Amino acid sequence: MIILILFWLVQWICHYISVHPDEDLNQQRTQMLQELAHRTMEPSVSFGGAVLSTALQQWLFWAIAGTLVMLLALCWWLKRRICGVDSSRDSESEGSEEENPTEMNMIWIFSRRFQLSVPKLTSRRRVVQELLSDLLQVSHSLFSDSFFLVLEPVIGVGSACEGWSPHKEEDVIYCMFVPLKPPPGHAFHLEPDTMGEMPQTGMRIRVEQVCTCTGEQADQNILCFLHHSEEELKRNQVTSLLHTLCTGPYLDGEKIALWFQTFVVSAWSVVPQSCHYSMKVLPSCRSCKMKLTKASGTSFFVEMVFSVQQDGSDIFLSSQPTEAQLPPSTTWLESYAVAEAKFFRQVAMQAPPHSCHLKCLRLCARLLEGSGISIYALKTTVMHLLTLIPLSEWQHKYLLMRVDDIMHYLRCCLEEKRLKHFFFGNEDMPEEISLPPDFQEAQPLNLFQHLAQNPATQTEALKEFDELQYYLYFGF
Question: What is the largest CA-CA distance in the chain?
């Protein structure tokens, strides 16, 4: 009984000091002891309606006295801990901002408990973008007179480029989309994939030859695939994209990945960064994965994913399959990664300095790691809350409140078996995000549809989530 009361009081103290950090510690202790006295003096044991015996009353008196001594020691320890944190700096360059000591203490406890890594995402991301920019310049000089694909400037996507990767620094993967454009004499046409039903929208990219004699692609120096003879084309060693990186009339993701991997290996020595990094191309069937290692031995990973823009919007078709889906190499999956990265850039521009939204994402991602709740569901939840809660309420001092909001929102979605996809039928969509017209009118997709179809899965998910939530708040 006494142990339970002491456990409750520890949690009550931690909650109370995070909500009322400016009150005097002695006043908190007095209120706490009064509430303890009130709770412990309530009759909870009865023997046939008789009052407690004298011996039991004496035992209870000494038990309460011992508990009060322990509580006084606990208060003294908390005060020492709070004062000690006041002189520390936040691990992510937030030391310049004036923070409440008790709030910083709780954040410190959270950080230690979940071992949050603080990779140098911004500086490393710049290095990656500069490296890939130089690599693409080499590709432009090599393939400018050919009919291979035109590689557009890379777009950083994924958690590392959004600034919140929960992984350790050595495990972070910097993912970059490489938008593809058709070469002269060719055009792309997007077709829905009707080969089978898949959870994620799949499309095929049909490549067509177009006339270069007249119209927008007219160029006197380019032979026309439609109006010049095969002998002329062969004599000038002109090969259509259809004969190199396509299967039938459709763009093939596996052929593109193999072509680009071969190019990277051959072109690496002329890239300026080759003086500072050694490079190894890692196995990947539909992307180009590289491991870059400095002379000091530190290394990081880069993944280049090939993509095609959809209707001039922020929605792209990606060559990279998901873990759950391995469609044919000519099927490209609809990806919202560019729109998500753009959303987080807009939030960063509008949010107050040292906003805690990325730290909330990192903390909750570490908590949910290995559970049945996907990181994408967490990310979707945070994006919804960033449009519902004013950005001024995401200041660093509100971190604990926002973490609680995220967990509560996820819990409600699990109960209702419904989590709306952020980019479909969302009336709160920021104006800066460009979506295809049918996205605005579409019915919101349910990311928890599998829970609605299987009640047993929902029951297990709720149980697991409650255990995680208990560990978050009480697992000191």
Answer: 113
Number of helices (H) and strands (E) in the chain: give both, helices first: 15, 12
Q: How is 68-129 classified by DSSP, letter by letter?
A: HHHHHHHHHHHHHHHHHHTT---TTS-TTS---HHHHHHHHHHHHHHT-----HHHHHHHHH
Q: Angle CA(226)–CA(228)–CA(233) in degrees, nearest 5?
A: 105
CB 260, CB 304: distance < 8 Å: yes
Question: Position of tokens 């709780």?
Answer: 106
In 197-276, beta strands by DSSP E: 202-209, 246-247, 250-251
Residue with tokens 């596996």, as numbered in its chain: 254
Q: How far apart are CA 40 and CA 90, in angstroms?
A: 40
Query: CB–CB of 186/241 below 8 Å?
Result: yes
| Cα→Cα distances 4→47, 67, 101, Å | 22, 11, 28
Which residues have a Cβ under 8 Å from the Cβ of 210 and sit 6 or more positions away? 185, 186, 187, 217, 226
Region of poorest pLDDT, from 10-24, 142-156, 310-324, 462-476: 10-24
Paired strand residues for 5: none
- pLDDT above 80: residue 38: no
For 320-344, what is each residue's pLDDT tens digit? 887 666 789 999 999 999 999 999 9
What is this structure's pTM? Answer: 0.74
Among the residue ranges 25-34, 268-277, 278-287, the one predicted with the least confidence is 25-34
Report the alpha-carbon distance of residue 193 to residue 200 in Å, rounded.
Answer: 11
Q: Let me know: does 53 contact 61? Beta carbons within 8 Å.
A: no
